[in-house]
From TrEMBL:
GO terms for molecular function: carbohydrate derivative binding; DNA binding; DNA-binding transcription factor activity. This is MurR/RpiR family transcriptional regulator. It comes from the Bacteria. It holds the Pfam family HTH_6. It comes from Mycolicibacterium mucogenicum (Mycobacterium mucogenicum). Residues 7-83 form the HTH rpiR-type domain.
Length: 287
């Protein structure tokens, strides 16, 4: 069953997530994290995992339009989803880090519908102009995606430009264009404001984000969740970088003259030569 179909667990949660209480959202997050095996648990066990009362969990079940927990459990079993991030202790070694990255990749695969990736790739190929937006830690993945796409097709840029807001880049966008937004914690207000603006303006938008922005999933044209759990102090970007590579390859395959454009870019790159090396302004001591 596709994740964007109304009867899927992900779609049901996305459609009502904004109206849930904080406690109900915690319970919903546990359901999504255990989408593949939640059908094997009792309601009290899932409530304990979410650190909420059984009554709160029951309210969530009703909000998801199930008559009771047994009906939801049968639904989850029918979905047969898999892929759950594993819990890893802090003070990580290399093995723990790699294990968590692998878990993130499996979780992304379980949450992500390949039809969504295909739809985004097709829209990238067909779009007149594309703005790839990312701030703070999201800028790295946004920059890589923009770099890849700019080699395949023209009129693709990273937004906002230095010293600007994103408004200068997308003010005259319409349904022929595409906004790709990437936001990973810590999130700023810009992500919600951009999604709301695109939704109200009927401009296609693909949102790459972690689970903290599921509340925006229903308003984005395409929602691509990239788990970023990490056993240390910072976040992992293995999942989103992998998805960037997958999406870039798919766009290249769908673009008739993509390979020829890459050759032209490489030719110009070689003609221009490598950028000059930066030199230090320091002078030897005593001079």
């Amino acid at each position: 069953m596709r994740a964007d179909e109304p009867d899927s667990l992900e779609a049901r949660i996305a459609n009502c997530y904004a109206s849930l209480s904080p406690q109900e959202r915690r319970a919903a997050d546990v359901l999504l994290a255990h989408a593949g095996d939640a059908g094997t648990y009792r309601a009290s066990e899932l409530a304990t995992m979410a650190d909420v009362s059984k009554a709160t969990f029951s309210r969530l079940v009703r909000a998801l339009e199930f008559s009771n927990f047994d009906a939801m459990r049968e639904h989850l079993r029918a979905l047969r989803r898999s892929g759950v991030p594993v819990a890893i202790e802090r003070a990580p070694d290399v093995s723990a880090i790699i294990s968590q990255d692998i878990a993130n990749l499996h979780a992304m695969h379980a949450l992500l519908d390949e039809a969504v990736v295909e739809a985004v790739a097709e829209k990238i190929t067909a779009s007149r102009r594309i703005a790839v937006c990312g701030y703070r830690s999201s800028l790295a993945a946004a920059s890589v995606l923009r770099l890849n796409l700019a080699q395949i097709r023209p009129d693709t840029w990273l937004a906002p430009g230095s010293g600007q807001s994103v408004a200068e880049d997308i003010a005259d966008f319409d349904e022929r264009d595409l906004i790709i937004a990437m936001s990973f914690r810590r999130h700023g207000r810009w992500a919600k404001e951009l999604v709301d603006w695109a939704y109200g303006s009927r401009i296609p938008l693909a949102l790459f984000a972690d689970d903290q922005l599921r509340v925006l999933a229903a308003r984005a044209t395409w929602w691509l969740e990239c788990p970023n759990v990490y056993p240390g102090a910072f976040d992992s970007h293995a999942a989103v970088m992998s998805l960037v590579a997958v999406l870039s390859d798919r766009v290249l395959a769908l673009t008739p003259d993509g390979a020829q454009r890459i050759d032209r870019v490489n030719s110009v790159h070689e003609s221009l030569g490598a950028p000059p090396r930066a030199t230090s302004r320091r002078t030897p001591a005593g001079t």
